[in-house]
Amino acid sequence: MAIELSEKKGIALALAAAFISGLSVFVNSVGVAGQDPFAYTILKNAFAGVLFAAALMVFGNYKELFSLSRSQLSRLSIITVIGGSVPFLMFFYGLSMLGGPAGSFLYRFLFVFSAIFAGIALKEKLDAKFAVGAGLAIAGNFILLGKGLLSLGLGEALVLGATVLWAIEWTLTKKFISEIPGRVIATSRMLAGAIAMVAILFAVGKADSVSALFSFNSSTLLWGAAVGALLFLYLTAWYSALSRISVTKATAILALAGPVTTLLGVAFAGSAVTLSTAFGMVLLSAGALLIAGYSEVLAAAVEYAPKSLRLILTPSKAIAKWKE
To answer: Hey, CA dihedral for 115, 255, 84, 89, is it positive or negative?
Structure first.
């Protein structure tokens, strides 16, 4: 079945966002072990926010920010709080209590929560294909958890709460993006969100995490800048995708970021993958692709992968796309 050009672009952009997200997680795992999680999160988010703000200024899009109405600014504030600040602090604090496997297990339910909220708020259709795809992905997720410990403690509640907040954020973003440009939303989310995180940490007595920002060495700052740049690219692709396709389809494709991180670990860090992990990844990927549409994803990847490569190799064309 033929799909509209705009939707095909949206699928391709969601695929790009999934790849960049998976790459970002891999880079984080290599470069930031032992850092204060709150301070490092603020660092990389602020870098991304500064890049967005700089792009708005350099390319003349800053006028979009100053033309926002009071109600639109209120919507930006909501995104900043429920997407760019509170959930980041909840997630990383919860993760420090849980460890990686349990935290990743809970976060991988993001597409399920997003689909539910989008179905309620945006009237997106959840059909039998979604049910089967979600079932496959959830089964894969449980296999990936393996023997990881999971209970109903504070750590699980924080990570799950952060995941739900991000699902609400993506639903609201889809609703707002028709009237507020994605680059403006991203600037507020990352830059104002980083400032909000600093304020929250002071308010809850975590000033030591803020102080850690000023004790980072040059290596950590470079890693933060690199991941901040990846966040900039990820959100640019992600918001462009959300403006073209449904939240359900976009977040299902984003679930492919997990397998990307695993493959990068095998290829570049010598990570070992067990048979059960590989099977879990296959089920998760199959479920996500079933929801998004196998043929649609393949068609978008075949058509837009060469175009994306040309954009990377031709910065002037990439800049022209940003200005659109």
So the answer is: positive
Burial grade of 253 (CB within 10 A; 0-12, 13-18, 19 or more): buried
* Per-residue pLDDT reduced to its tens digit, 74-96: 999 999 999 999 999 999 888 87
| Gyration radius from the chain CA atoms | 19
Between the CA of residue 322 and those of 59, 111, 240, 319, what are the distances in Å?
A: 8, 27, 10, 5
* Domain extents in the chain: 5-323
Taking the C-alpha atoms of residue 182 and residue 173, their distance in angstroms, rounded to an integer, is: 8
- Pair 7, 203: CB distance under 8 Å: no
pTM attached to this predicted model: 0.91
Q: What is the tens place of the pLDDT at every residue in 281-314? A: 999 999 999 999 999 999 888 888 776 656 554 6
Between CA 76 and CA 270, with CA 39 as vertex, the angle to 5 degrees is 105
Residues 290 and 138: their CA atoms lie apart, in Å, by 13
What is the DSSP code (8-state) at residue 191?
A: I
Tokens of 64: 């979009």
Supply 234's token pair: 């990820």
Interatomic CA distance for residues 75 and 183, integer angstroms:
14
CA 170 to chain centroid, in Å, comes to 10
